[in-house]
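Re: the pair you flagged

First of the two:
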Amino acid sequence: MKRQFNLKSTDRPARVTALAVVTLGLALLALAAPISRAEFPGARVGGLLGIAAAIEVLHALRRSTAAARRQATVGAIISMLIALALINAPFVATEALRLVVAGWFALDAGRYAVRFFRKPIGSNRTLSVLAALGNGALALLILISRDWGTTWVVAVVGAGRIFGIAWNIMTAPVYSTTEADET
C-alpha cells in the first residue's frame, strides 16, 4: 500500500504503446475523411473521435495518479460530447454546430489554462500551456471558418483532438506491470 502513495509522475519521455498507435491511426483516418466517399465526412470524424474517447477512458484506468485519472476522464467526456455533436451534424444547423464544438474546445482550453496556474514549474506546466494554446487555436479555427472548407476544418479539428488524446496516452504516468496489484 505504501508504494501506491510514493508513485511519482516524473518527467519521462513519451512512450509509444499499442493504444497510442491505434489512436494515431484514428487521427490519420479522420484527416482522410474529406477525401473518402462518405456522404457526411463530419459524422465519420465524429465516429472516429468517439472511438478515441473510449480508448482514453480505457487508458484512464491505467493511470497511476488520481489527478491523471480525473484529467483523462474529463478529457474523454469532452471528446465524447464533441463526437456526438459531429455524428449528429447532418441533423443540426451548421452555425449551432460550430458554436457548440468551438465552445467545447474553449472549455478544454480553459481547463488546461487553470491546470497551468495550479502546477509547479516543470514540463507538466509547459504541456498544459501547449494544450491550452492548441485547443484555443482549434476553437478559433472553427469560429473563423464560415463557409470555406467546412469539411476540411472539421477533419483537421477532429484529427487534432485525436492527436491530443494520443499524446496524452503516450505521456501520462501509468502503472507498470509490477504495480498492477495497486489498481
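Second of the two:
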Amino acid sequence: MKRFFALIVLILAAVGGWYFASPWLAMKGLSDAAQAGDTAELEQRVDFPALRASVSDQISEATRRRQGQGGLLGELGGAVAEQLGRRVTDRALTPDAVGQLVASGALAAGLLPERLRGQDIEWHVERDGFDHFRAVGTFEDGTPGPILLFARDGLGWKLTGLELP
C-alpha cells in the first residue's frame, strides 16, 4: 500500500512538474533554435499552417475595420489588400522568419522601428489553461513586442499563432 501511495505521489509530481515547466522549456527550445538558425528544429516546433491562418485572420480583420472608410474604392482596395496580405503571409512565414521574430521581435529587421533595433527582447510565459499558453515579448525599454500563441501537441507544445503589437 505504501508503494502504491508513493507511486501516486510520484506520478502527481511528474504531471505537476510538466504542467509548470513545459511552457518555459518549449519557449527556451524555440528561442535556442532561433538563435542557432536551426530551421529543422523550428519546423518541428511551429505549426506553420495554423500560424499562417492566424496572421491571415489578423490581416483580414484589420482590412475589414478599414473598409467602409473610403467608399467603393476603399472597399475594392481593402479586398485587394486582404488577398495580397494572405499571399504574402503564405510566402513570408518561413522557419527563418519565425526565427527572426523570436530572436529580434520582428518578422524582418526592416519592419522593426529604428528605436527598437538592437534591443533585446525578453519573453514571458502566461498560461491560458491546460492546452494553451502565450509568450509575451517585451523590449528592453519596456515597449510591448509580439505575443506568440502555443497549443499543446501531445506532451509538447507548438507555436500556432501570433499577435502583432
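The mean pLDDT is 81.

-B.
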